Amino acid sequence: MTYTFRGGARQHVVCSTSPAARQRESQLKIVAGGDQLGSEMSSCYKLLLHGRRYRALALLTSNRCSSRSLSTGRAVQKDIIQDLENQFKAFRDKVTAAMPGSDWSPIELTRGLPPERADIVIVGGGVVGWSIAYWLKRRLMSRDALRVVVVEKDPTYSQASTVLSAGGIRQQFSLKENIQLSMASANFMKNINEHLGVLNEDPIDLQFNHSGYLFLASEASAHIMEENYAIQKELGAEVTLLSPTQLKERFPCLNTDGVALASLGLKNEGWFDPWTLLNAFRRKAMSMGVYQCFGEVTGFRCWTQNAETMDGDLLNIKRIKYVNVKMPNSLEYQPVECAVVVNAAGASSGKIADMVGIGHGPETSMAAIPFPVEPRKRYIYVVHCPDGPGLECPFLIDYSGVYLRREGLGGNYITGKSPEENEEPDCSNLDVDHEFFQEKVWPLLAHRVPAFESLKVTGAWAGFYDYNTFDQNGIVGLHPLVNNMYFATGFSGHGLQQSPAVGRAVAELILDGGFKTIDLSAFDVKRILCQEPMLERNIV
Amino acid sequence: MAASMLFQVRRHCALVPCLIVATRQYASSPPSLFNKFLFQLNQRFLEVEYLIRLSNWFKNRDVRRKNLIYDYAQKKYGVNVAAAYSILKLGGGFRFAGQTEWFRADSKGKFSFDFVNTPDSTIEEIDLSRTLINHAGLHNLTSQRKLRSLSVQGCPEVDDWFLAHLHVFSETLQELNISHCPRITVGGLAALQHLRKLQQLDISSLPQLQSPGLVHILIEEMLPHCKVIGAEYDQGLQIQTDSQEPRDADSLRHAQT
User: Fold this and answer.
1) For residues A90 and A168, what is the distance between their CA atoms, to the nearest angstrom?
2) Inter-chain contact B165–A208, Cβ cutoff 8 Å?
3) 3-state secondary structure (DSSP) of residue A312
4) Do residues A250 and A394 make contact, with C-beta atoms less than 8 angstroms apart?
5) How many CB pairs under 8 A join A and B?
6) Could you say which of B38, B186, B196 has the minimum Cβ distance to residue A199?
């Protein structure tokens, strides 16, 4: 048998015995962690005394360590356990052979392992992923008609974009699809307790704050705002345009220098608590039988077929057979056999697409185009300003890119700005750059709202955008080269507000083969392969 | 009589108080036995989900019926008649502009259809106190561009989304009464900023407001021409002196040690 030492510090413990004895000892000893010999001993006792814990043995075979044994009596006991372990393993194999197709096992080796087989694996347990899971389950009439597994790598959601966002919802877009998605999502939130209420649980309170978005346009962009306004009106969004004098009258705290036109959302706009929405989706989906699994997707096993295009290019068409899910803090992984994979991994969905081999094809072919979603770091600052605007404070978006919204009633505000393309911060961590506020945000903010000339930064955090570098809009649909991977990602900052409607659209796409309520075919992956961007006409 | 007998039994038998305690309702509503049973089933069968949704549908049927959008009436008789009909159907009352008499349904919900004869008169005042109106039912009234006063006192279905929809009356609405509505929160009150003509607003007894006094001040700042009735300025304020004393005692103890 082979064994490895975990660290150099422990090697001296076993040096005085013969190789055979050392080998036996190494079988006796298991180390559950910790550097002290004492703790190793105590954990060893724990494992021996609690009969139920011997299953941990199986996990530790890969990194078994050695330390000194003091008694021989335990060796016999341990051998019995080793035998039992082998017998259990044989029993497990027998059971799986006897019942093919069932993933029931008499001994659960690791808690939280995903099931071995699933119909749909959703990669990414953010609000979009859970929304898709909910809508998939909702469409079906039987609990086991579809086995849906949601894989999330961050059990505490400490780095999830969903909960680190500012939580706004608006209808002031220029693309028809975006406006429709937001309006449908607002209607969903209006009746959220009918959709996501769970038996025996408290009703959901989203803490929705009905203050509209106020967009300010400069002379150069006023005509874009007028065009957008016409589209929004046509689709039924309730928005009004304000001239600088009207703006000054409505919001006396604003400085209207340089503002040529403003548009204010009247209904279905505002901000809410993202964590509540995420948890409501999660609670409901799990009550409907969706499997939740904490682990990281590390790879895919695919089946490949060659196909020839009209131009004579050879393409590899892939189909995912297995998703490898690695358990957190462990090397153990479980291949999940599945029919459909949904990539809702948000900021890391580019990485997931890379694992399947998207963008690795021969150059000048379609397969060489990488998936254009990457994480971008955005800072959000909490400032305290007792003299700032009160209850009437809208979600202000200036043409310079600075945004501002109220947080609670105590004179706290949330503010931030998207950095320029050439000065994007490093995305490897979530550290906040406070100089960015001093240099880029504050001067613009204080110019727009003079009350913010004196303020105190009370907090700040950073979160990831799932930034679509191609055209900053969502990507919803099936990838032509991987014919069972659906995408619902790349929303570049408005994924949270559109998640209820996007989940419904993806569920329709999977179960019905096409969009039924909102036609999102313009957001298909094909636009990336054909290089036809769907750009939002921004005022900012 | 029964109570005194119960007390006698209680004195003699030790089990009875235990039983009484066991059957007593908790302060917060615990799930009923039926609900617990349903919950167990729900963990195994998705069909229970449909049952629950169906039962909710039946529970909300009354609210939905009262808040139907009267499309047909709007087409056939005009928007004013449809609005008047929807108000009377809900059990509320209204007054046409230029008239003094109020149209109301009687205690049995019956009303006369005189308003059908005057399709051109618009509604000036609406009283929907203690009715089941919600944001869907408000659609019937949005055509009333001369509405001056609206009262939705004590309506259980009036929520923040209802208040957000009131912006359609921003040019005319002068009086608004939203007191005693159990579902209104501060997030919805922020939407009242669009009502620029508002002169009187009643926000008394809103149980969801955490600090009514502060909200009162903020609304007065937001709508400078509006008289706000209801919460006192100091309502919901916490007096600081109580929390100060133990802190002082703590610091003293730290100083001694």
Assistant:
1) 55
2) no
3) coil
4) no
5) 85
6) B38
